[in-house]
Structures are given as structure tokens and as C-alpha cells.
Design brief:
The structure is a homodimer. Chain A has helices spanning 2-9, 15-38, 43-55, 72-91, 95-127, 133-144, 148-157, 164-195, 202-233, 242-260, 265-275, 282-286, 292-313, 323-341, 353-359, 364-376, 387-415, and strands spanning 378-379, 382-383. The first copy, chain A, is mainly α.
């Protein structure tokens, strides 16, 4: 029992410093967002920049905060941020909506996954020939997934959510996310198997895909049956944050289950969001509780920036000192842009292919999550995604994120013609 | 750079399990609160019970979740909960209000600190004669501080916040908190010094007290000058959560500075709350932002239960298997109740001494924080507060917390006479 109480106090010494770092993250993110907003850029860019600055204070003679990235505490807060973000994205669409945009969105999504993957792999083979093929595979995976969050936000800000192009972009971006996450599971699985010295049998690859599909189908079907009943049952509890606590509990539980199924926690959070609808909480809202998204928004407002600032902190600016890293970052960004323009070729008649191609362009959080996971996968004592490639990947994400809002606005206006 | 990226991934394996534990904490706390509410008990009791259950699942054949208490991540979330709670308590009063209740509250507070400390020390000398004097000192400190949060909530729920008795209780409880925290700093300092083998010189004790006072005065005076200007300057940022982020940043920064001054982070959070007033954010609220307390409430609603559930998890139920622990818990509770009744002797004419004595009774979070810190202080490889004493302290906190609401209601009605 003594050892237990001792253990309960372990790491207590670092808590005040972590509180100070959180203060820097909270205020730094706000300043970064203010700067980005002033420059007409999306908020996520400002948070990445704040993290970049905080993580590289040592270059300016400040303290080396990057040492704190080892903290499980900061990692958990950041992971919760990613989980809440994907939960929110899932919450904003239904399984039915995903099915309704159907065929066209699926074709656009598949084209928008395969082409960038091939380009990313090719760029790796050409410019990172000395690195193992696993890095090339990861580069492909990193370029695959569109950031549905950034896309949706830009379309909403432009008041264009109800255009045919927007519906196809959003549908395809959602499918893209799922495809990208399956790709990630397969690539990680192959690499993990390789790291332990065995080749991954085709049956094992099939099992990874099957587990991912089984989890998604199971979560959507079983979840679709159980979740509404849970909200009904929870009406027996006295009102006051009941629906928000239940939604958060389901989101966290699904994240855990996804990880148990070999997927990333964010896949589970996204599935939980798809299953959950605001209508499930309607009776709770009638009792005076807030709608789910509104209730969870302040928590997300604290945790999501922790994720993006921490991601920015991971970037070692000194990695850009090499001309080869800069060249690599530019070529990777070019591959990312070209890869998604192929989506435009599958636009239906009367819908601007250019708009769709640009709308699918931003990589945002999912690309960063891929890069982060790649940086954590160890093969022969080295991370699959090295610091230079990580820096290039973050550059690619930042560049596609910065370029999308003005370009998409321009494409939307152009396709609507001079009548506007 | 490779080792950096590796380090960034350290502990990643445990993240999904922590997400699952957080799901259990969020839902378990809500169920516990529902049960407590149904039984007419305060919410905090339900959260402690939920933690007690989660921490002792192994006794019921379930998994041993108490092993996860070593996690720095859970500790940081819990500490942030305690910090936000004390910040909120501080936010609800001003330095001026503390001065206004003045002399009478100070006398009540001092009597309500000295008597329970003497009783706690005496109980330790009698019933824990084999343990070092440090434990006895900690028992005294644990009994000292009234839980201003629980007291205020009970008075508010009873609609009695504006009675003379309530004003004296709240003023004294706030002073009590500060006195208690100074007591804690002195006791911890003496014990830490003893642990390193040197006796603490009187000058060193004076320095501990001076540091605490200097921090509080500095935080209140300097903070009082700087904080309103910070909120004015922040009006230059585009609106949207600016005031909440600034308040949270200030709260976390003060917590860090308090720890640097040798105090607990919660002292800093409380000082930040005292300095901050809703009026500082008035211009931000006029721009469409929420008032500070409303803006931070959802974050507190998530983090505060993590603190209390984790505190409950720390209780090893098997520690109660010993009759001596049960007897000790009962005597400690008796000392806690009697110690605060002395406060009633200093009630002014026309104010019920019984009401004041009962109102000062609940120990709540501060007592638990003391017990937790004592459990983390190591002397000669053993924690100062052993598991049995910790269990007895939690019993004392729970008993005074449970007993206060009904007793205080009864005393309020009795003092208002049969006219009501």
C-alpha cells in the first residue's frame, strides 16, 4: 500500500511546469489565431505557428520546451483534442448522408486517394532513395487524406455549403478520411510486422482491413441500435450535463475500442460522431441541457489547440537548414496539390472540376496525425518518418492549408460566372 | 533529432487505456452525482463514491485501475480540476469583500484553524503514538481548512447567502483557506527539511511564511495592477474566446508561480481568482464573448470530477478491514466536528453560533488535497500519511461533507425561529 501511495505521487514535481506550458499553449494559440485571422488565414495555421515558435524557443535563446513533449500528460491532452475534433466532424454528418452522396463522391474519393499515394510513393523513391521503402509508403499515406474539417470550414465561411460542388467535396472528403485511415492501418501494420522481422502475410493484411471494416460496420450498426437507447435510459438521471457526459463517454469508449481493433483512436471518435445525432439528445435538451456540439465546444476549444500547438512544437526548425529538406518540402507540396486535382476529372456535368480539385486539397489534421504516427513507429531503433521528412510533411500541410481558402474562394466565384 | 521524435512517442501505448479510464470517470462521476442528488447529498460525495468503486474494482473481481494512478496524465488532469475549482471560488469574491468582513471573520477563522489543529495533533499523539510526529502535524493541518466551495454551495442552495451568519461563514472560510494553505506550507516545509536530515531553523519557517505572504500580496497587488490592463490590451485581438483564454492563462501562470514560491498550485489559482473580476472582461462580453465563469464552466465540469474521482480511487477499501482504522476514522471525524464548533463561540450578538459552527464544518477538497500531499511526501522511504490514515482522512472528509447540508439547513431554520 505504501508503494501505491508513493506511485500516486510520482511525477508530481513536473506538474507546475506543465501548468505553465499549458498557459503558454493557451495564450500562444490565441495570439497565433489572431495573427492568422488578421492575415485572412485559417485558425489552425496560427496554432501550428505558435507551436513552431514555442518548440524552437531554444534557437532564440529561450528554454527548450521540446523536452516536455515526452510528457504522457501533454500527449493525452493533445490526443483528446484530435479525438474531439474528429468526433465533431462525425457529429456533423450521418451515415445516411454518407450513403446519399454515394457513387460520385466515392469515385472522387478513390481517385483522390490513389493518385496522391502513388505520387507520394514516387517522390519518396526519387528523393529519399536511401531511406527504406516504409518511409515511401508513409509519404503516400500522408498525402492521401483530405482534411474534412478545413474544407467544411472554408465552404461554410464562403456560404457555399449547399452548392453541388460542396456536397461532392464534403462527401468525398468524408470517404477519403475513412479510406485514409484504412490505408494508415495497413501501412502501419505492414511496417510494424516488418519491424519485428517478419513479412506481413497477405492474410494478415486482409485481417487488418477486415478489422477496420468490422469495427466501422460494428460501431455504426451496433452503435446505431444501442446509442439512442442509452440516451433514453439516461433520462432517468437528474438533468444537468447528462447528455454531454454520455456523448463524451461514448466518444472516448469508441476511441479506445478503435485502438483495440488496431485503428487509430480518432477513427473510433469519428465513428462515434457518425452514430450520434443531435436528435438523440433532444429530450435532454428539452430538459434544459445544451445541444451536444454546443456543450462540448468549450472543451474542444481548450484541447484542440493543444493538439495543433503540440504538433507545431514537434517541428525542429533547424531541420530546414538543409537545402535538400527545403527542396523535398516543395516537391512534396507539389505532389500533394497535383494529386488532388485528379479528383476534378470526375466532376459531374455542370460542376467545376477545378473547384472540386482545390476543395480536396487541404491535408490538415489527418496528414499531421499520419506524420506523427510515422514519427512514433520505430524500425531498427529509428523512427520510420525522420525529422527532415516530418518537417517537410508539416510544411506540405501548412502550404496546402494556407493555399486552399483563397484559391477555393476564387474557384467558387469563377464557376458561378460573371453574373455574381 | 531521432531520439527527440522517439521521445515524443513515449507512452503512446497507454493513451487508449487512459481514454477508456477517462470514459469511466466521466460516466461514473455522472452516475455517482445522480445517486447523491437523489439521496439529497452534495454532488462531490457522488464523485468520491464513483472513484472509490472504480479504484476498488479489483476487490469485485474487476481490473485493477489503481495502477493507472501513477500516470502523470491523470494527475495533470486532476490537478487542473483542483486549480479550476479554487479559481472559481476566488473569482466569486474580491479582495475588498475579504477585507470588509474583517475582524469578526478573522477571529472566527483563527479559532477554527487553531482548535482543530490542536485536536488533530492530539488525536495523532493518542491513537498513532507509534508514527512519527510529522503524521500528527499533518493530521492537524488536515483538520484546519474549511471547504469554502461546499459551504458556499449549501448556503446558496438554501437561499441563505445574504444572512449575517452566511457572510461571516464565507468570510471566515476564505481566510481559513489561506491560513490552512500557509499551515500546509509550514508543515510540508518542516517535514521536507526533516526528511533531508536537517532541522528547520526558525528563520527558515519564517521564510516559508514570508514567501507565502509575499506571493499572496504580490499576486494581489501586482496582479490587481496588471490584470485589468491585460484584458484591455487583449481587446486588440479579434473576438472569440479571448477573455476565457486569457483568464485560463493567468490562472495557470499564477498556479505555476505559487508552486515556485513553495506553495500549492491551488493557492495561485485562488489568488488569480481573487484578482480577476467579471468586470475586467466586460468589454469582451460586450463583443459577444461569454462571462468568464460561464466560459470556463464546461472545462471545469469535465476536469473537477476527474480530481474528485481520482481522489476516491486513491482510497484502498481494504485499509478499512482493520478495526483500528475504523475507530481512528470515527475519532478523527469527531475531532473535526468539535474543532469547528469553537467558531460558534465568536459569533456576534444575534447570530446563531450553532449555524456558524456547522457552516465551518465541511472539509471537502482542501482536506483531501492535504491528505494527498501528505501521502506524496516521503520520509525515510515511507509516505508521511500512510494508507490507513489516508483512508481515515477521506472518511472524515466524506462524513463532514455528508453531515453538513442537512445539519446546516436545520440550524438555519432553527435560528430563524418559528416565524418561518
Amino acid at each position: 500500500m505504501h508503494s501505491l501511495l508513493l506511485a500516486a505521487g510520482a511525477g508530481h514535481e513536473r506538474i507546475p511546469v506543465l501548468l505553465a506550458v499549458l498557459a503558454l499553449i493557451v495564450v500562444g494559440a490565441k495570439l497565433g489565431v489572431a495573427l492568422a485571422t488578421r492575415l485572412g488565414q485559417p485558425a489552425v495555421l496560427g496554432e501550428l505557428l505558435a507551436g513552431l515558435l514555442l518548440g524552437n524557443l531554444a534557437l532564440l535563446g529561450g528554454p527548450d520546451l521540446r523536452g516536455l513533449l515526452v510528457s504522457e500528460a501533454l500527449l493525452l491532452l493533445a490526443e483528446m483534442g484530435a479525438v474531439l475534433l474528429l468526433f465533431k466532424v462525425g457529429l456533423e454528418s450521418t451515415p445516411q448522408e454518407m450513403l446519399a452522396v454515394g457513387g460520385r463522391a466515392l469515385v472522387v474519393a478513390v481517385a483522390g486517394v490513389i493518385t496522391p499515394m502513388a505520387l507520394g510513393f514516387g517522390v519518396g523513391e526519387l528523393m529519399r532513395a536511401d531511406e527504406p521503402w516504409m518511409l515511401h509508403a508513409f509519404l503516400g499515406a500522408m498525402l492521401a487524406a483530405t482534411s474534412v474539417g478545413i474544407t467544411a470550414r472554408v465552404l461554410a465561411d464562403a456560404g457555399a455549403l449547399q452548392t453541388p460542388a460542396a456536397r461532392i467535396i464534403l462527401g468525398a472528403a468524408v470517404i477519403d478520411d475513412v479510406l485514409g485511415l484504412i490505408v494508415l492501418a495497413v501501412v502501419s501494420g505492414i511496417i510494424t510486422a516488418a519491424a519485428t522481422g517478419v513479412a506481413l502475410a497477405p492474410a494478415a493484411i486482409a485481417w487488418i482491413v477486415a478489422k477496420a471494416v468490422l469495427f466501422l460496420v460494428g460501431a455504426l450498426v451496433l452503435g446505431g441500435l444501442v446509442v439512442p437507447r442509452l440516451f433514453k435510459t439516461a433520462l432517468a438521471l437528474p438533468p444537468g450535463g447528462v447528455s454531454a457526459a454520455l456523448a463524451l463517454g461514448i466518444c472516448l469508449l469508441f476511441s479506445y475500442l478503435a485502438a483495440r481493433a488496431g485503428l487509430a483512436p480518432i477513427v473510433g471518435a469519428f465513428a462515434a460522431g457518425l452514430v450520434l445525432e443531435e436528435t438523440h439528445a433532444a429530450d435532454h435538451v428539452a430538459r434544459g441541457e445544451k445541444p451536444l456540439e454546443e456543450a462540448l465546444a468549450p472543451l474542444a476549444a481548450f484541447l484542440v489547440p493543444v493538439f495543433f500547438v503540440r504538433m507545431g512544437m514537434l517541428v525542429d526548425v533547424s531541420a530546414f537548414a538543409s537545402a535538400s529538406v527545403i527542396a523535398f518540402a516543395l516537391v512534396l507540396t507539389l505532389a500533394a496539390v497535383i494529386g488532388k486535382q485528379v479528383c476534378g476529372l470526375f466532376a459531374p456535368r455542370g460542376v467545376s472540376g477545378l473547384t472540386i480539385g482545390i476543395g480536396m486539397m487541404p491535408r490538415g489534421e489527418v496528414g499531421l496525425i499520419f506524420a506523427g504516427i510515422g514519427a512514433q513507429l520505430m524500425v531498427a531503433g529509428r523512427p520510420v518518418v525522420d525529422a527532415g521528412t516530418y518537417a517537410a510533411a508539416v510544411f506540405m500541410v501548412m502550404a496546402t492549408t494556407v493555399a486552399t481558402p483563397p484559391l477555393l474562394l476564387w474557384a467558387l466565384r469563377r464557376s458561378q460566372g460573371p453574373s455574381r
